[in-house]
Specification:
The complex is a heterodimer of chains A (about 280) and B (about 550). Chain A is mainly alpha-helical and about 280 residues long. Helices cover about 75% and strands about 0% of the residues of chain A. Chain A contains eleven helices and no strands. In chain A, α7 runs antiparallel to α9, α8 crosses α9 and α9 runs parallel beside α10. The longest helix of chain A has about 35 residues. With about 550 residues, chain B is an alpha/beta fold. Chain B is about 40% helix and about 25% strand. In chain B, the strands form four sheets. In chain B, strands 6-7-8-3-9-10 form a six-stranded mixed beta sheet, sandwiched between helices. In chain B, strands 16-17-18-13-19-20 form a six-stranded mixed beta sheet, sandwiched between helices. Chain B has a four-stranded antiparallel beta sheet with strand order 2-1-4-5. The chains are: A mainly alpha (about 280), B alpha/beta (about 550). Chains A and B meet through α8 and α9 of A and α14, α15 and α17 of B.
Chain lengths: ~280, ~550
């Protein structure tokens, strides 16, 4: 595969992939390194990192192991990032495909709805959803997905609009294909690469959105997430800054990894755009 | 040699290398040419022969990964291949100017024509803005743009294709360059416009004594305009000499092949046509309404106006016309990609124009279409076999059988059966067009609508595809509606010809009659505009391609 070869020739993309692999490895190995509940009390509160070999990254203000929370938090961040992205991309493709393929009044109606969503700051919308439906892990994930679909929808629509008048689509129509066959079989595979690349942006934003919610103590408090830890650390920010900084770095690394992978995918899938 | 004394631009063993992984190591291999003042040198070759790379190499406008790696480009005693970028900037425009194939993309859409021509002066001279304006108007007058004052204020999209190309020529000639490089400047234009632009270039060259390097793929254009000719193939100049001697007495086999592929203008002897009409188009009209919200400012375009045509079984009906004549809209009405407003299209006793969408989908195997662009008409993510099998699969043939049939069809259109497992980008333009043809034939249609099916192909490939089409017509008993802007192509394959202008059929009849004794002034104008018409007529019509 040319695209795979091109991907691995790009050092930034490879670094991104390595970082992402590290985060995934943390998520997978969390139960193995830290078999105990990460939210259980483990020792004295506010131990500085590297001062006690039992708590490599120290403990937070309630005496819970920060390293354990970082490992388990990787699970939550990846879960929320992955599922919310899948939801956002699925809604986006559905709406974008219909709007772009049919055009006319269908496009008008769907795009006005999309714009209505886009004009609201999505974090405000997210707050409203969480306030209404409560803040369990499931509702937070779905809510993040639901506020993130407009951009992928617009992207899909643009791709569909340019593809639907291409001659090979007309050829499909003269062969007697149904609209569904044309949309799913002919247009979608050609429209997908930029949407997949954009999914990495959606994923990065989804992780940040969850952290922001947690920072405001609005995410699910019963799971060990990086955002929750930052939120906790807020109370001791001036002296024990590491409680917030360590999960902050974890978020930074993950978002950076996802963006680098996305950029690498973009260059690998659209080689002609590179180097401009 | 007396020629080298007056040579203004000389290429000496010029080589240009291509990046690794290209189909050949060098785009140009040891090309030696000289361009003399007061003469037009035509460089002819098919796509991929390196002729455009040569023009760009002279101007030093090559992409980064492509570079000159040998030879010299001598201009006014300097080697352009070795000059600095700053010096090169002074040569471009003032010493050597260039015009391109597609004037729409070569002009900045956000600035007026007058502005863009005036820019030439503001970059290279210190003239006052009033003087620049006067110069611009004089130039626009020189290139015979109707109403130069209005044209100077117009934006590119407000001008027609021919006028845009005139503006480009005005811009190129602004600083009285010694050499004008024209890279396929008339390829994107209609035939009547092309004739005007060729006459203009010829005329300007005479008046200003500019040396012209004219790049083209069309031997008709060569016959029309060239003083000297160089024939290129795979980056080599295979033959060069005086236009007359090359055209009438070509030495190299490739030159002979190219000239032989130039379609003659006279139609071959008529075949006997069936009295049974397979397709009857009666009074079909299509009107487009664009723009306008709630009826305000709407534009109405009558693309097809009350067209009536008949296609006898087993015959080929050519629909010829320039861009905007409505021929493609008519083709799409016939296959119901577009719904006609009024009229009937009777195919095998059924009024095709009145079928519901659902019925069209079911009946679509009776009538199939071959598209113009061999690159855009195949889904890049499907293999050739799948592409051909798609139609039968949609209509209920089991997948395995459809794929097996597809291999046979690929063989029928002259492709290797192993082609079935390759993706479209692995084929050449002509091969892709064969895949498109196989796809259309997969449903065993009675009528084939070919919309500019050979227009995007090189002449030699064009001839092959036309031959294939004629063969298939015979073997499968196809009836063909053949849409083209190129009268020479129509003359080769069509039994009947209808000439369209502004949505109307202005003349129709047997191909021999329409081309031999055109009645309508528009048909006459079209025939007169064919480049190298005299040259084409001189050559006798070969036997019909079949």
């Amino acid at each position: 595969m040319d695209a795979v070869k091109r991907y691995f020739r790009n050092p930034a993309a490879v670094i991104g992939l390595l970082l992402l692999v590290v985060v995934v490895a943390m998520a997978i190995s969390a139960g193995w390194f830290y078999p105990r509940d990460p939210l259980a009390l483990a020792g004295r509160p506010l131990i500085w990192p590297f001062s006690n070999p039992r708590f490599l990254l120290g403990t937070d203000n309630s005496g819970r192991d920060i390293a354990a929370q970082i490992f388990y938090g990787a699970r939550i961040s990846l879960l929320i990032g992955g599922v919310a992205t899948a939801i956002a991309i699925a809604i986006g493709i559905l709406i974008g495909a219909f709007a772009g393929y049919y055009g006319g009044w269908i496009d008008n109606v769907l795009m006005r709805i999309t714009e209505a969503f886009q004009t609201l700051p999505n974090f405000v919308l997210l707050l409203v959803l969480v306030a209404v439906f409560g803040s369990t892990l499931t509702t937070v994930t779905i809510a993040v997905g639901v506020v993130s679909w407009p951009a992928p929808a617009r992207l899909t629509r643009a791709e569909f609009m340019s593809l639907r008048n291409r001659e090979f689509i007309q050829a499909g129509r003269t062969l007697g294909m149904k609209d569904v066959q044309l949309i799913l079989g002919e247009i979608l595979p050609n429209a997908l690469p930029p949407v997949i690349v954009y999914a990495s942006v959606v994923m990065a934003v989804a992780i940040l959105l969850e952290s922001a919610l947690a920072f405001l103590h609005l995410s699910d408090p019963n799971v060990a997430s990086w955002g929750n830890l930052i939120g906790l650390g807020r109370d001791v920010l001036r002296i024990q800054w590491y409680v917030s900084a360590i999960p902050g770095i974890a978020i930074l690394v993950t978002v950076l990894a996802v963006s680098l992978v996305g950029q690498g995918l973009n260059d690998a899938l659209n080689p002609r755009l590179k180097g401009r | 040699m007396s020629e080298s004394l007056t040579a203004i631009l000389t290429l000496d063993q010029l080589s240009v290398r291509l990046p690794r992984g290209a189909d050949r190591p060098h785009a140009l291999s040891g090309v030696s040419l000289s361009i003399t003042t007061d003469k037009i040198l035509c460089v002819v070759g098919e796509s991929g022969s390196g002729k455009s790379i040569m023009a760009n190499a002279i101007m030093r406008l090559l992409p980064d990964e492509v570079g000159i790696d040998g030879g010299r480009v001598m201009f006014e005693g300097r080697d352009l291949a070795a000059t600095t970028t700053a010096e090169m900037r002074k040569v471009r425009g003032a010493g050597i100017a260039m015009i391109f194939q597609e004037p729409m993309t070569a002009l900045n859409p956000l600035r007026t024509i007058g502005d863009q021509i005036g820019e030439m002066f503001s970059i290279h001279t210190d003239l006052s803005s009033a003087a620049v304006r006067a110069k611009v108007l004089a130039l626009l007058e020189d290139v015979r743009i109707p109403d130069p004052k209005v044209a100077a204020r117009a934006y590119p999209h407000e001008l027609s294709g021919g006028q845009r190309q005139r503006a480009m020529i005005a811009m190129a000639l602004a600083l009285d360059p010694k050499v004008l490089i024209a890279d396929e400047p008339t390829t994107a234009l209609d035939v009547t416009t092309q004739a005007q632009i060729l006459a203009l270039i010829r005329d300007l060259q005479k008046r200003k004594r500019t040396a012209v390097l004219f790049i083209t793929h069309d031997f008709g254009v060569v016959a029309e305009i060239a003083d000297r000719v160089a024939v290129m193939q795979h980056g080599f100049v295979v033959e060069q000499g005086d236009a007359a001697s090359i055209l009438n007495n070509p030495q190299h086999s490739y030159t002979k092949q190219l000239i032989a592929a130039v379609p003659p203008l006279t139609a071959p002897a008529p075949r006997k046509l069936s009295d049974d009409m397979i397709l009857t188009i009666d009074n079909v009209s299509k009107t487009y309404r664009t723009g306008g919200f709630l009826g305000r400012g709407a534009r109405v375009t009558q693309a097809v106006k009350a067209v009536s045509l008949k296609l006898p079984r087993g015959a080929t009906l050519g629909i010829v016309g320039e861009s905007g004549s409505g021929k493609s809209t008519l083709a799409r009405c016939i296959v119901r990609l577009i719904d006609p407003d009024t009229g009937s299209i009777v195919l095998e006793g059924k009024d095709w124009a009145k079928l519901t969408r659902e019925n069209v989908r079911r009946e679509t195997r009776h009538i199939q279409m071959v598209f113009q662009d061999p690159f855009a008409s195949l889904n890049p993510r499907r293999k050739a076999g799948e592409l051909v099998a798609q139609g039968p699969i949609v209509h209920g043939t089991p997948r395995a059988k459809a794929i097996a049939d597809a291999k046979e069809l690929l063989a029928l259109v002259g492709l290797d059966p192993s082609a079935s497992d390759r993706f479209p980008h692995e084929f050449s333009g002509g091969q892709r067009q064969r895949i498109g043809l196989a796809r259309a034939l997969a449903l065993r249609p009675e009528v084939l609508v070919a919309d500019e099916a050979v227009s995007a192909l090189d002449v030699s490939v064009q001839a092959q595809v036309l031959k294939l089409l004629a063969e298939l017509r015979q073997r499968l008993g196809l009836s063909i509606v053949f849409i083209t802007h190129d009268l020479r192509v129509a003359a080769q394959i069509c039994d009947l010809v209808a000439v369209m202008k502004d949505g109307e059929v202005v003349e129709q009849g047997l191909a021999g009659d329409v081309f031999g004794r055109p009645q309508h002034p528009y048909t006459q104008a079209l025939l007169d505009s064919i480049p190298g018409g005299d040259f084409a007529k001189k050559r006798e019509a070969p036997s019909r391609v079949s």
